[in-house]
Records
---
Amino acid sequence: MTLTMRRTLLWLTAVVGLYVGLWSAGAPKSFYDSFPGLGFIWISIDGPYNEHLVRDVGALYLGLAAATALAALQRSEVAAVAASRTIGLAWVVFSVPHLAYHALHLDGLGALDVVAQMISLGSTVVLGGLLMLGPEPARTVRDVGAPATTDP
């Protein structure tokens, strides 16, 4: 994967985090009542409103988005690859159980909602997985202080 492609995936993933994070942390009741928007409603059908929980989810997404953006801004290819792999892992660790929960709790959703929700939630699993892929870039003189890997 090229560095440009890796950075594009990082920025795309950061935008997902910002969309969910800013809305749920900044306007939790609106998020609960209206997420994801465009006439779909996925949160309020899953139980009573809990401002603390919705704001915490927003903060989690904002934290992931901030770390993802920082990874995208890494100047050296070695640092960008290492950071994107770590960020990818964080997104997968969060997204797999999140997707699994929603996949097991589809009651009350119409067919279009089910498909859209699974695609939406699956996208962060895919993006995170893609960020973990790719060979290590060649080390440069600038990266001499970085830990070296050796074959036994």
---
Amino acid sequence: MTARLTVVTALRSEFAALSGRVPDARLQRCGMGPDRVRAWLPKLDATQPEALVVAGVAGGLDPSLRPGDVVVASEVRDEHGRIVLRGAGPLVAELRRLGLRVHAGPMVSTDRLVGGAEARARLAATGALAVDMESTAIVRAAGAIPTAVVRVIVDTAFSPVVRLATLPAGARALSVLRHVGPALRTWADLCGPRQVLLAEPRSFCAGVERAIDIVQLALQRFPRPVYVRRQIVHNAHVVRDLERHGAVFVDELDQVPDGTTVVFSAHGVAPAVRDEAARRGLNVIDATCPLVAKVHNEARRFAARGDTVFLIGHDGHDETEGTLGEVPGKISLVQNPGEAEQVQAADPERVALLMQTTLAVDDAADTVAVLRRRFPAIESSPTDDICYATTNRQQAVRAVATDSDVVLVLGSANSSNSLRLVEVAQRCGAEAHLVDDATEILPAWLAGARTVGVTAGASAPPHLVDEVIGTLRALGPVEVTERVVTREDVTFTLPKTVIDPKGVVG
């Protein structure tokens, strides 16, 4: 169904740029500045919109912004306060899909043009990306109507405010604004009621929480910088947050200065890495998940007794690299049933099996079946290698996928357990997509979808799930139903290296 969409611009040039570019929309011009906005607001009520977009040009505050960049407001601010705009995530995704350079963040409205570099620097220090004169007042008047604010940068922190008609950057900005137009209709048509099926368990597992806690406590206790070898967990938001607090992520130990503190990630490391750290006098804090450490222990045990050891896992994953490195040359990686048909054992009666902890249970079962058929005497760990959190989240996504039009899985592209959740949902017959956050949700996925399944990989922060649900709520009424397959109460102790001598953390 086509929503009644009103698009508001301030300038004639903006109005002209969008004329005929937003299908079935009512285009309005409010005039420039807060006084003209106040005089125009009664006309907004007369249009009775079901969706509202404030669109036009703006001044850039963030130094990284260039003329022609698009800013979609995550919130708008003025002297009266701030208003969060939660529904714009799919609009960000659509504009990026169109090839535009898009930024999502706060926007501030002032009562006059802000031209000086010093004045813009003061506004930039508040975290605002861009400045205009109309958006916040219009958004405030819109109330509960699904609303988005889209501005194209014309003047930047390093360029003066001049007449739009005489500035080449202005022509570029208006050209970009024309390309923005069709996406506004696409976004507006997402507005409407939905049901959300929320999988439980979801998000952080005990091993991930432990690893993040370890880095945070190391930053408190040890001299900075504190280095982390590889991503502490496979999630971009977690890594960026820890970087903001002072953690420095590196790929290898040769990037870590002698004598400093280094944290090993939750995925574990090979003994050779530990040996190098000891040789160089590094202060090592080990955040390896205890369940990964269990697989490492089994690898050493099986290899020590002379078994041929097969590891089911994904080539190049940090966890498999660490496990293979426990006994170099004595473990064979098996990625799928086809490879399981090809591997050989020195003694078919002395064969052992290990698995990466974040595999899809069904996929691993197919590969295990081949190995057990070919090597009936094969032995595995006394407890499951695939961790409880991976198994629980896969069972939970099954519980929502069968009744969902689309399933959104929160997680980063390098997160094995998150990717497996997408695959599990797809095997249940659902359309499923992996997204880092709400700004990666393409409108096409939600178009016509009235029941949306939502879950998150074990390395994805819970607040990302809340933001996705908030995005859907901002587009219309949402009924949330949580489907629980189990409740998790697992905890892991922290290493002594981040606990003070009295046993107090931090």
---
Amino acid sequence: MLWHIFSYKARECESDEQARNSFKDILKDNLYSFYLFHQYKDTGYIIDNKFRAFSFDDLSQFITDHETADIYITDEQFNWTFVLTHEDGWLGPYFCILHR
């Protein structure tokens, strides 16, 4: 799993509620597009957030089964990453900013 870079503490990040709140803040402040992809799927999405219409609760529509339970979201420049894991509440979620 790609997100083990955070769970194994190989990369500094926020976790749990702090990670959720940081991601929610990014969604409120970010007018740009971001990428959303899954661990086990070959498809990804470009989410246009110029109207700030995407919310944290919208993530649930991207989880349909075990193969879609690990979600990675990053901005177009890969400055930040939010990960929602299938182990949510035990491992994850995680939020990482590149410039930390």
